[in-house]
Design goal:
This protein is of the alpha/beta class and 402 residues long. It folds into 2 domains: 284 residues, Zn peptidases (Aminopeptidase, 3-Layer(aba) Sandwich), CATH 3.40.630.10; 110 residues, Alpha-Beta Plaits. A 7-stranded mixed beta sheet has the order 1-3-2-4-15-5-14. A 4-stranded antiparallel beta sheet has the order 9-11-7-12, with helices on one face. β2, α4 and β3 form a beta-alpha-beta unit. The longest helix is centred in the C-terminal third of the chain and has 22 residues. The protein is elongated and about 80 Å long.
């Protein structure tokens, strides 16, 4: 790090108070989850909290999104930090005082933690405006989990106007608390959904399938062929995966149904493979259906592209983690996750980087993302907010001194 960046010091009294404040915020959010684009109470809570700490909050964007601009006392560019605020439609089965109070909804992907860290960053930056050379925009995005997701809506409503780079975090229960996962290049995969309907026009008798169009048998031929596409029509050196997760057909044991439907996801770490795989899925399904006398409809829900972390932004993060927490806090991620993050949409417009935040300190915090028992070590909230505050200040200083 430069000596200027290393000199950043935040008020210790605020640091000490922050841990309690952020734990309280996170537990409120965890107890009150809301599904994507319906996060009205969540949005109002974020707005009220930030306002209480003296920040000026924007009008709503993308229905339930919002942001704060922390304008420094020195001129410079705008860097952004993104948080997602929606929950999942899963039951929370933990036995904790802050368990979800809403049946069938829970923060089991850590978005409550992401939001809490963002609030902490905004509070700290607001208290340290004299250190900021430019502006930090902390924004809160709805519907990360949905397709179509909230990121394109936020972009449509102008969240990236004037922004030259954007950062984000994602909690990671596979990493120990106090560790941060860094990776340059592909950090996640794209994620797109497909639905395939095989239509025969009429039912048939199970005793005489040769006289009917067997939609289930045709579906199995399509599924078998699809599973062979990866590594045959895609480059085996570029990671991709197809997963069929739904199958629906028929009600009787002796009737060949007139319709069968199945669907799932396909994921790629490179966009050129994504387009290739999408085209081949459609061609394969329609071609096999035609061969055996069935009509086949193929529909896609296009999700997020791959998150491609910018090397220079990761370098700034690395320097500040080393300075603040030491080399043992860094985990160099060896390969991308095949999970998806709609943060990737922002990176189609500006450089960005996604950080993995270790949140595991016991068996209770080791449950994987989306598990109904998922929880985090809350001690990481304040530490991570502090680290990000120093990183964002350092980024702006580097840009203005370059």
């Amino acid at each position: 790090m430069t000596s200027e960046a290393a000199a950043i010091e935040l008020p210790t009294t605020l640091d000490l108070d922050l841990s309690t404040v952020l734990t309280t915020i996170r537990r409120h959010l965890h107890s009150n989850p809301e599904i994507g684009l319906r996060e009205f109470e969540t949005s109002n809570f974020i707005r009220t909290t930030l306002t209480e700490y003296g920040l000026t909050v924007s009008k709503p964007l993308a229905k339930t999104g919002l942001f704060v601009d922390i304008v420094g006392e020195h001129r410079g560019p705008i860097v952004a930090y993104r948080c997602d605020i929606d929950a999942l439609p899963i039951e929370d089965t933990k036995t904790v005082p802050y368990r979800s109070t809403k049946h069938g909804l829970a923060h089991l992907c850590g978005h409550d933690a992401h939001t809490t860290i963002g609030i902490g960053i905004a509070i700290l930056l607001h208290a340290n405006r004299d250190e900021i050379h430019g502006t930090v925009r902390v924004f809160f995005q709805p519907n990360e989990e949905g397709i179509p997701s909230g990121a394109p809506l936020m972009i449509r409503d102008g969240i990236l106007d004037g922004v030259e780079a954007v950062y984000a975090s994602h909690v990671d229960p596979t990493l120990s608390s106090g560790m941060y996962g860094l990776r340059v290049g592909a950090a996640t995969a794209s994620a797109d959904r497909f639905r395939i309907r095989v239509l025969a026009g009429s039912t048939g008798h199970s005793a005489r399938p040769h006289q009917a169009t067997d939609t289930i048998w045709i579906s199995t031929q399509i599924m078998s062929a699809m599973y062979q596409l990866v590594g045959r029509v895609t480059d085996a050196r570029k990671t991709a995966v197809i997963a069929i997760c739904r199958l629906k057909a028929g009600k009787a044991y002796n009737v060949l149904p007139a319709e069968a439907e199945f669907g799932g996801t396909f994921r790629c770490t490179e966009n050129e493979e994504r387009e290739k795989l999408k085209a081949k899925i459609e061609q394969t399904a329609i071609g096999i259906g035609r061969t055996f006398g069935a009509e086949v409809d193929v529909d896609f829900d296009i999700g997020a592209p791959s998150v491609l972390n910018d090397g220079s932004l990761i370098s700034v993060l690395r320097e500040n983690i080393l300075e603040s927490l030491g080399p043992d806090a860094i985990y160099n991620i060896p390969e991308p996750s095949m999970g998806a993050e709609d943060f990737a949409h922002y990176l189609d417009h500006v450089p960005g980087a996604l950080l993995r935040v270790g949140t595991c300190n016991s068996p209770k915090t080791a449950f994987v993302l989306h598990d109904s028992n998922f929880d985090i070590d809350e001690s990481v909230l304040a530490t991570t907010a502090n680290m990000w505050t120093k990183t964002l200040i350092s980024y702006l200083r580097k840009k203005t001194s370059a």
